[in-house]
Amino acid sequence: MQKTHVVIVGAGLAGLACATRLAQQGVEYQLLEATDRVGGRLQTDSLDGFLLDHGFQYLRTDAPIAQRLLDDDALRLRPFAPADERLGTQAAAVPASGIEQIPQQLARALPADSLRLQATVEAVAEGHVQLTDGSALGFNRLVLATEASAADRLASGFDGANVFHATRPVAAASTVCYFAADELSVANPLLFSSLVPAQNTSAQNTSAQNTSAQDTSAQASPVDVPGIERVLVISQLAAEYAPPEKSLISVQLAGTIDRPWQQEAAVRRQLRSGCGLQVDAWRLLRTYALPEGVGGMVEGALETGWQAAGDVLGSLDLH
């Protein structure tokens, strides 16, 4: 049976941050990821020339852990401008090529052969993990950097002193709908947040300026659409998110939608009546249901993984 000093299960942000710190200290490890790409909940899909992040996600560039681990210039960060206090920070940005560039940057910096994709851990036993392909990998220390439910399952019945957790609390469930539209021009790309409309929602393209009297009066009643949390013209932050002369709009809803193809009309009604937006010409690209949410996860996940590595190093007396 092959053996390594530390096994890290899960190559999301926490697992990658943990691996980064261990690598900096020269500790041998294997990072195991069940899927075919790193990043966990930080993923970006490409569709018809649009970049679709899995959820409303951004980087707080003023976070110390982000400054420690990430190369902002290489990420080609596109800041929210003007800075918007509704995001809880004055230093929010997205990578030009999608949020998944953050985990990919961390993965590229890891030592060769330290990361294994499509390596699913089936069970944890004394001193080793069992993979679904029938192989086993021994360890001196184990870090569980998976979703909390998976970590609990793997750790159940195994009370090992050499097992460390790098899991984050589950965030509120949400759904993100992506719409394509002809190019919009707005002063503040965050059109709507936390049920409070931005000041410039009338600055739409020509068709959007023809808001009906009913829609205009509804702008004063954002409580009519409690499901909508944010509406963002993300392509105005990062033009790379959309093809030329097109806009990409991200609509975040509270909770998950079971049958989005049946509820698209309801979402459009909420956008019209509660946000005062003309959306008839918008084309729905894709919907992502996120039962475990993504709120505040970038910096929090990095910090969790970094701290787990510190705990491992402390157990080895290698601070």
Fraction of residues in β-strands: 25-35%
Which percent range fits the helix content?
25-40%
Radius of gyration: 22 Å
CATH fold-type name of the largest domain: FAD/NAD(P)-binding domain
Distance between the termini: 29 Å
Nearest-integer average pLDDT: 84
Structural class: alpha+beta
What is the CATH-assigned architecture of the largest domain? 3-Layer(bba) Sandwich
Keywords: Oxidoreductase
Enzyme class: oxidoreductase
Organism: Roseimaritima ulvae
Domain Amine oxidase: 13-83
Structure description:
Strands 1, 2, 8, 9, 10, 11 and 12 form a seven-stranded mixed beta sheet that branches. A six-stranded antiparallel beta sheet has the order 15-14-16-17-13-18. Strands 5-7-6 form a three-stranded antiparallel beta sheet. It has two domains: 136 residues, FAD/NAD(P)-binding domain (3-Layer(bba) Sandwich), CATH 3.50.50.60; 117 residues, no CATH class. Helix 1 packs parallel to helix 4. About 10% of the residues have low confidence. With 319 residues, it is α+β, with helices and mostly antiparallel strands. It contains nine helices and 18 strands.
Question: What are the key terms here?
Answer:
FAD/NAD(P)-binding domain, 319 residues, alpha+beta, 2 domains, six-stranded antiparallel β-sheet, seven-stranded mixed β-sheet, 28% strand
